[in-house]
Amino acid sequence: MTAPPALLGLRGIAVHVGDRAILELEHLTIEPGETLAILGANGAGKSTLLRVAGGLRRPTRGRLSLHGRAATPAQLREASAAVLQRPLLRRGSVRTNVETGLRFKRVPAPERRQRTAQWLQRLGLESLADQAAHSLSGGEAQRVSLARALALAPQLLLLDEPFGALDSPTRAELLADLRDILATSGTAALLVTHDRHEAAATADRTAILHSGTLRQIGPTPTVLDHPADADCARLLGFDNILSPHVASRLLGRETDHAVAVRATDCRLDSDGGGAGAVERILPFGAFTRAIVRIDDTRIFSDTPASSPEWLTAFEPGTRVDVHINLSAARTLP
Amino acid sequence: MDVLWDAVVEAFRLLLSGDGETWEIIGRSLRISLTATALALVLGLPISAALAFGRFPGRRFALALVNTGMGVPPVVAGLVIIVLLWRSGPLGALGLLYTQTAMVIAQTAIALPLVAGFSTAALQQVDPDFRLQMQALGAGRLRSLWTVAVEARLPLLAAGMAGFGAVISEVGAALMVGGNIAGQTRVLTTAAVLEASKGAFALALALGVILLVIAFAVNLVLTAVQQHGRA
Prior knowledge:
Structural class of chain A: alpha+beta
Number of helices of chain A: 11
CATH superfamily of chain B: MetI-like
Number of strands of chain A: 18
CATH topology of the largest domain in chain A: Rossmann fold
Oligomer: heterodimer
Number of domains of chain A: 2
Number of helices of chain B: 11
CATH architecture of chain B: Orthogonal Bundle
Radius of gyration of chain A: 24 Å
CATH class of the largest domain in chain A: Alpha Beta
Helix content of chain B: over 70%
Distance between the termini of chain B: 39 Å
Structural class of chain B: mainly alpha
Radius of gyration of chain B: 20 Å
Shape of chain B: globular
Order of helices and strands of chain B: HHHHHHHHHHH
CATH class of chain B: Mainly Alpha
Distance between the termini of chain A: 36 Å
Strand order of the largest sheet of chain A: 6-7-8-3-9-10
CATH superfamily of the largest domain in chain A: P-loop containing nucleotide triphosphate hydrolases
Helix content of chain A: 25-40%
CATH topology of chain B: MetI-like fold
Strand content of chain A: 25-35%
């Protein structure tokens, strides 16, 4: 038995600006009902990928398909709906905005009203329905933007860093709502983000895009915890990329590979002779970051502790040892 | 000061007494200038959309040309149109010189760069991603342009007002291509020039006051449309 074709397929896609390739993808698919997160730093080509997938930008070359059949940009736009980073709302009420796409697609008025009411309720916007859209807070506006896209019942929801500008509690709440909606509606989603926590919260699979090329793709827990290379590791929050030489010293065993380790998995100890010296202490409120220099390598160590005693024990210049949580260290190929 | 006061009194006397010739000139002025403004909007909005969103070679050059056109004196525009419409000119066979049509053409040429220039700036004020967002919700090319225009309707109406203000008040082109023929091509500005040349300053000023009142009334209507729904 052959597997059903992917909802969206991208093959041999390239996008150029002048002579420079800003996106080069050999192969990428989005399966029906799945959420795929594209994780990448600024300028990695994430938004370009999303726009190509939604038929909003023509690639220089390559083939896009829907359910296994070659798709035109117009067919891609018909199958998808996008939520961009900034909630770009029209003048008028919240209700008018949620109706926007349904009007574009000439959905009959009774059905339009019913679907609008349904999504206003689903996203907790009923009380704001008649309010001017331009008077909303950032979180409320992004909810409207999400309701507007979901009201179209798209086969593929395109999300271009929609939570980037929101404060932490608002973002968490909206992420939770989005996760519930995607799980119950069966809508496939392509989420573009630079934040691994957003991928962890919503995505079945995660792909890492770096400088326009796909570096890693797989189930989200696997990708987030097993970076394929140093670039992926940095993006996934592995603050320390240790050279084989330094890694061998700190791990207490010989290795020919670089090792990635998060700052939270490096513990400092000032009892012994000290392999390195504290260079700087950076208080971040919820945690304190110590920067330790060992030879030419700077190692970051985060600790929730920031008591006066701790700060005295690890003041700059203090010789310290760095202990790495071995189970959390990842060997890079 | 007496002349000014007399002009104001004369202006309202002409308006309120229902003076046939005055009202005929007012009607003609409005008809010609509003037609020219409407034509400038019809032609200028697609041009401004192309300049605001298009990516074609020479776009910046075209934009600079439009911006320069915003400052062209009406008399120069009139000269160009008269050369085109002159009996031996390329469009002379149409026999349009000294007609209201010729005045509409000249005033359209004056208003067009203003409308196109201000409209381009108006459309470019809308977030560049707004149109993309509308397309991502199913709007076609034209529909998405329309939504941008609706977002920019306040400055777009201002562009229309600027165009109308320029043509209702210009005299050079109207005089050159219209000829100020009584009962045919005489408009408020050309009539005012004629009266001033005869030394009838109070009547000339009265026509000027009427011109201002008419321009104010039209702009009041446009402003009401523009500011609809705003406190």
